[in-house]
Design brief:
single chain, mainly beta, six-stranded mixed sheet, 40 strands, 42% strand, disordered N terminus
């Protein structure tokens, strides 16, 4: 726990907090070099990873820019690049990172002080023929970035397919580097939100990314810490808890026991239509969880969910990032007084029957309780989600929804948060007992869909389509392929991605022997609500059926395609 601080230190804290937030802008000038250096400290945290044994990633550096629309690798002089002293390979699903801890990536002096609108996390290539970094070799990996999961068919290890690693992964959050000041940032890479499953004929899933990484600006640690970024939940703004584990699974079987429990801090989405996760972690086998780091707000609704378990919601949980009102972390429960989850095996596997026209979309399932708030009287909490295969628009697997009612509590800041659970009431969802709200989110050019309700007994649902944002219309990208695929490949696809992840995938297998052209419909146009949405990275990927993971080869365009002011574009790629 942090020591109490003086009012003078807290005054410095408020001054730092005042300059640390703000929205993104695409027109800020590049920061100018300064004779007074700043120090940048960056840590990487994992997050919720139910169903994933390991998510290994290899980080090589960071890049930042004052313009949120720029794409790293475009040659713009405004990019400020920081290479790590040596690549770092971490397992984001490991307990040390998925339950509220982090690993330090970088602490480095920066000469270009000023305000930045984006940071890019640069990852090593996961291509099967890419050279393994020493850090990945030391971990015994096959690829620099890889996923391990277990299903009825056994344990599977496959590469994490990153369509354009040279562009990095964008985090669109304003932060400032000030002279003679340390700026600590924390990146959350949440496997549950970012991984996209793609089925194969062999029954082994492929994995790519939906770029859902989040950047937390942690100016409080500059004033209250010792200059080092320690993401351990010991400073004021964290939420911890303890669950009773009497019904937790203790072996590999999940029959009749609680498993894959996730605790999430949620806030209203920017459009006010639902409660979205802003920090999610795995609950440990011992029943503990720690939600830290968190964004710089003071009220969250905490949602705790899991397999064979009734959902728990604690509304308006207070954390104090200043320490003025509550100079300790917020503890929802303790070992002596744990929250007791209710075992309930009545969960339902639900199939999404339609292929979403926006192939890169994600389908969400949620439930609403009285008092949840939002743009209308109450809005749902996002409890389960699955991303569609960007090649087909279909979900790879059914989505498992928890059964039973919801256990709801309203946090009372005058007495709660010291380790004794608040009083819970068992309530039915406003959708109806066993019924669920269903909606979807598309790519960067889309906003939230309409919300429909799945009836309690329905084992399938047609998901509504995301809504195209104002300013975007359909455009066309024509990709000409030449040459012939190598490595015995008999499958080919053109992969288009932007700062939000994979946008579209076009089958090009018929062109694998002699080339040809593929036309892909993509959003074109521009909107300040979605900077850089129509700047596309393009690649062609080939592989041999039955050896998808080891035979894959990639060929990538050297620069991004810009459809922000044009309705069509074309480029040429050589089949790898």
């Amino acid at each position: 726990m942090a020591d109490p601080r003086t009012l003078a230190a807290l005054g410095a804290l408020f001054a730092l907090a005042a300059c640390g937030g703000g929205g993104a802008s695409s027109s800020s000038p590049a920061p100018a070099p300064s004779s007074s250096n700043a120090e940048l400290s960056v840590a990487l945290a994992g997050g919720a990873s139910p169903g994933i044994d390991h998510l290994w990633v290899t980080i090589t550096g960071l890049a930042m820019h004052a313009d949120g629309t720029r794409v790293f690798g475009d040659g713009d002089a405004g990019w400020v690049v920081s290479q790590l002293p040596a690549p770092v390979t971490v397992d984001l699903a490991d307990a040390s990172l998925s339950q509220g801890q982090s690993v330090s990536l970088l602490k480095q002096v920066q000469t270009a002080v000023g305000t930045y609108q984006q940071l890019r996390l640069i990852v090593a290539s996961s291509d099967p023929n890419a050279t393994l970094k020493d850090s990945a070799v030391a971990k015994g990996l096959t690829w620099n970035d890889q996923v391990q999961y277990t299903d009825a068919g056994g344990v599977h290890v496959v590469p994490l397919e990153i369509p354009d690693p040279q562009a990095g992964l964008r985090l669109l959050q304003q932060f400032s580097l000030s002279a003679d000041t340390t700026t600590p940032l924390a990146i959350e890479w949440n496997a549950a939100a970012s991984l996209v499953r793609r089925p194969t004929a062999a029954g082994v899933d492929r994995f790519t990314l939906r770029d859902e990484l989040q950047l937390y600006n942690q100016p409080l640690l500059t004033a209250l810490g010792d200059g080092n970024l320690q993401i351990d939940g010991s400073i004021f703004d964290s939420i911890s808890g303890q669950l009773d584990t009497s019904n937790f699974c203790t072996g590999s079987s999940h029959a009749g026991c609680i498993h894959d429990v996730v605790a999430s801090a949620t806030s209203l989405s920017s459009d006010g239509l639902f409660h979205e996760e802003v920090r999610s972690v795995n609950v440990s086998a011992g029943g503990t969880f720690l939600l830290y780091p968190l964004p710089t707000q003071s009220l969250y609704d905490v949602v705790i969910r899991g397999g064979n378990m009734q959902t728990i919601v604690v509304r308006n949980v207070f954390v104090d990032p200043t320490g003025l009102l509550k100079p300790t972390p917020t503890a929802l429960s303790s070992t002596a007084t744990p929250i007791v989850p209710v075992l309930d095996a009545s969960g339902l596997d639900v199939t999404v029957t339609n292929a979403l026209a926006t192939h890169g979309a994600r389908v969400l399932f949620g439930q609403t309780i009285a008092g949840s708030g939002g743009t209308s009287a109450d809005v749902p909490y996002a409890i389960a989600a699955e991303a569609a295969d960007p090649a087909t628009g279909l979900l790879a697997h059914p989505v498992t929804l928890p059964g039973g009612p919801i256990h709801d509590a309203a946090f009372d800041s005058t007495k709660d948060g010291t380790g004794t659970p608040p009083a819970f009431t068992t309530v039915a969802a406003k959708e109806g007992a066993g019924a669920w709200s269903v909606w979807s989110e598309g790519t960067l050019a889309d906003s939230t869909s309409a919300i429909v309700v799945k009836a309690a007994a329905a084992a399938s649902v047609s998901a509504p389509e995301p809504v195209r944002r104002s300013g975007f219309v359909d455009g066309t990208l024509t990709v000409s392929l030449s040459g012939a695929a190598s490595n015995g490949a008999d499958n080919a696809e053109v992969v288009v991605s932007n700062a939000g992840g994979t946008v579209a995938v076009a089958n090009a297998s018929s062109l694998i022997a002699g080339g040809g052209s593929v036309a892909i419909t993509l959003p074109s146009g521009a909107s300040t609500a979605a900077p850089g949405a129509t700047l596309y990275n393009v690649a062609v990927h080939t592989w041999k059926a039955g050896a998808d993971a080891t035979s894959g080869r990639w060929s990538r365009a050297g620069s991004p395609v810009d459809l922000s002011s044009a309705g069509s574009a074309s480029l040429a790629l050589t089949l790898p």
